[in-house]
Amino acid sequence: MPLRWVTFGVMAPDRYTAPEFAASALVTIDTQRDILDGGALEVAGTSAVLPQLRVLVNAFRAARRPIVHVVRLYEPDGSNVDLCRRLAVEDGSRVLIAGQPGSQLADELLLEPSVPLDAPLLLSGELQALGANEVAMYKPRWGAFFGTPLEQHLREQEVSTLVLCGCNFPNCPRTSIYEASERDFRVVLVRDAISGLYDRGELELQDIGVQLMTTNEVASTLDTLV
After folding, report:
1. Which domain holds residue 96?
2. How high is the pLDDT of residue 5?
3. Residue 145, SS3?
4. pTM for this structure?
């Protein structure tokens, strides 16, 4: 049988790529206060998707499925900052600084907004528990799997399917999606719960077997598991 391969085509889900929501985990990317409207590193469109993110985290909590909130945390001296931003931080830019208010997760993601990120714990490479089956995790670069315990955490919980949302598609989410695909995870991108998504990007993702769904579609599917 010939391989179904069309450049920038849309591949229908098959038995290898179709989401398995009973074995799914939600991964939120970099949805921190500094990147919201008016923040020190404002990313257009991220504040606008907060209502959808709130629906998703609540749906995964109700279904008792794992949630991982992935964050960036910068040391004030710039020592752990990616090269494209290191000079700015060394020169005094106060973006995503570990322990500062702007580095905290957006309130809409949290079950208990008063619980702060434990920067020393996260920077040491450990996961921080935020609730039942819900953790925060620091990533040192664009991809959520690079230099992190994410894959081990997911394998231990027998997760096969990742549902991704947050900020900002061209950078960290896209890198994380390709890393997940390389590790043979099934991947869903929630198209109305991520900032920076564009038409060509959607086509490229579908061409590697990523499923594009809306918040309501994901939430409705999870409802059947409760």
Report:
1. 21-223
2. 46
3. coil
4. 0.94
